[in-house]
Design brief:
5 helices, about 20% strand
């Protein structure tokens, strides 16, 4: 699926490995809307692969690639592929775990769609090289997340709740 952005195109290859993701309705349209808006705001373009999976697969990915023996909400794998002239740049892969995302949304009192939108934007920013581990980096990344979410009609996830004060999300 391809979504025009003001300064490029975001092409999304989305795979739904966990059927419960369909509770959100058209997840392809949701991802295209959220990431198309984010790409437009950041004036970026490229291809992204998204895996909507479950905690078991996310646990395995988190253990294999980050050394953490537990599931997590979102993982990003920036591409190290070289740019090929005339071809879209592959930005990387994003994986999101259904159970963790749903549980976190409930715990925060946030609509599931809002939280998933946040996780997709969070992962997208990681693909573009943003980080939040160091507080100085978080002071750049987290306001970008809030700005993009605001443009989608969702509140700042860092203003209140468990993310207030920053760097609460992986």
């Amino acid at each position: 699926m391809t979504t025009p952005a003001e300064h490029g195109v975001v092409s999304i290859d989305l795979r739904v490995a966990e059927p419960r993701w369909e509770s959100l309705g058209d997840v392809n349209a949701l991802a295209a809307h959220v990431l198309g808006h984010a790409a437009n705001q950041l004036k970026s373009a490229g291809e992204i692969s998204i895996l909507l999976t479950d905690n078991a697969e996310m646990h395995a990915l988190n253990k294999q690639w980050r050394g953490f023996d537990k599931p997590t909400d979102v993982l990003s794998f920036p591409s190290d592929s070289p740019e090929i002239p005339g071809e879209p740049l592959h930005l990387g892969d994003i994986a999101v775990a259904y159970e963790t995302a749903l549980d976190d949304a409930k715990a925060m009192g946030r609509p599931f769609e809002a939280h998933v939108s946040h996780l997709l934007i969070h992962g997208f920013l990681h693909l573009l090289g943003y980080d939040h581990i160091q507080s100085e980096d978080a002071k750049v990344m987290e306001p970008l997340e809030a700005m993009i979410l605001s443009g989608l009609g969702w509140p700042d996830p860092y203003a209140t709740g468990p993310y207030a004060g920053g760097t609460g999300e992986g």
